[in-house]
Structure formats: structure tokens, C-alpha cells
Amino acid sequence: MPHTVRIALWTGEEQGLLGSKAYVKDHFADRETMTLKPEHARLSGYFNLDNGTGKIRGVYLQENDMMRPVFEAWLAPFKDLGASTVTIRKTTGTDHLSFDAVGLPGFQFIQDPVEYSTRTHHSNMDVFDRLQQSDLMQASALLASVVYHAATRDQMLPRKELPKPEKKKKDEENGDKPAVPPGR
Question: Domain tally for the chain?
Fold first, then answer.
């Protein structure tokens, strides 16, 4: 492959995307000043899979419609496996937001919500035994294909306009979660 592929495992997502935010600030840009680092110009895209088991059904474009034909072509071989949705919508709550916030193409895949909010997610039932092998096999093949196609493209992935600097809000000092008043 002509381009480097990085694989990252984050920590602190539920506490405010702490791992990915720190990585983005160290390597790509400071969100508060939008001061770009040299690596910003070299990253083509970031692909995130966050919801554990559950087949991939498509991808959120994060309002980057220039990526629609790219993802439609990349997902076409996986249509028979149920992955064909390409939506302009944004989604929140995952580490792709740290990249999107500094103008880098960051995408979260749409997945089946297998017991995500009802039984296993963030509970003592969220264990290896709950994974579904066929879902993981489909996701692995699809992600490998998407990453391969991104790494072998002649051009960088299309980018949205750079965002303006965004000063930290007081609540963000508590990991993007609203501060809880004492006594609650």
C-alpha cells in the first residue's frame, strides 16, 4: 500500500473522548486554536467502529456529501451482507468526532444495535461471550476493504471546510459531560 495505515484503540471515550482528543491534539490540531500540525495535511481519513457486535449497515457521512460516491463504491461489494446505507447525517458519542472537529474526515459506521442499550452496553454483561461471530466477520471484512481502498487512493479523501476555533466550555472541562452539581 502506498500510504500508512494506523490502527488505534482508545480509552476514555465514555468520559469525554479523552484518548482520541489527546491524540488529535498531539498529532493533528488544537481544537481551541485550530493551529494545524504537519500531520493534519497527511491524514486522509479516520474510520471508527464503536458499537461492539452488530452488523455494519452503512456509514454516517458527518455532513460530508463529497464522500457519498466514494462510500457507495466501497460498500457496493457488501450490499448482499446488508451494508449499503450512506447517510448525510451526523452521529455523536464516538471517537470520530475528535477528528471531525479539526476538519479531518472522520466517519462512524452504522451498526445493528444488538442489546446495545438494553442489556450489555456498559454493564457487567458486556463481555466477550455476547459477541456474534458472523457480525464480527462481516465488520472485519468490510473495514479491511474500506481501509485498503482509502490507503490505495491516488487522492486524499474529500474534506469539509475547516471549522473555526472553538474555545472550551466550562462543562467540557469535565470530559464533555455536564458538570454534576455537588450532592447529586
Answer: 1
